[in-house]
Amino acid sequence: MLSVSLLFLDIKLDPLIYNQFQEDPWPTVIFFISFLVIVPVTFLVTRSYRVKDSLSKILNEYVQIGKMPEESILSGVNEIVFVTDISLSVLYLNSTAEKEIGLSPGLALNKVY
């Protein structure tokens, strides 16, 4: 509302804009109509973005929490554990496998054996 009143005040106080408004007021009217339309649209877009951003953060945290129990269970096993995919590419190896075999995760992960 303050922006609209400042625009009206600017038209009234600036002689060049005021004379132009006196000659042809329709460009100014169209400008105000577009201003009244764009402000609510902007609020809707920012609200939608905030909702999507907060949902993204919540889902990311949920995925991280979902991964933690699997990793903690596998790391707590005292046996050597390799997790592979169908093509036998190593996806995970626990700390016991690292110690016993001497492979670091950087060397073993995503390699086909």
Would you give an account of this structure?
It is a single chain. The protein has 113 residues and is mainly alpha-helical. It has helices at 2-13, 15-23, 26-76, 95-101, 105-108; strands at 82-84, 90-93. The chain has two domains: 1-69; 77-113, no CATH class. The chain is built from five helices and two strands. It has a two-stranded antiparallel sheet with strand order 1-2. Helix 1 (2-13) packs across helix 2. The mean pLDDT is 78.
Task: Summarize the helices and strands and which ones pair or pack.
Layout: H1 2-13, H2 15-23, H3 26-76, E1 82-84, E2 90-93, H4 95-101, H5 105-108
Antiparallel strand pairs: 1-2
Helix pairs in contact: 1-2
- Spell out the helices and strands N to C: HHHEEHH
Low-confidence stretches: none
The outline comes out as rod-shaped
Number of strands: 2
The termini sit apart by 68 Å
Mean pLDDT: 78
- Share of helix among residues? over 70%
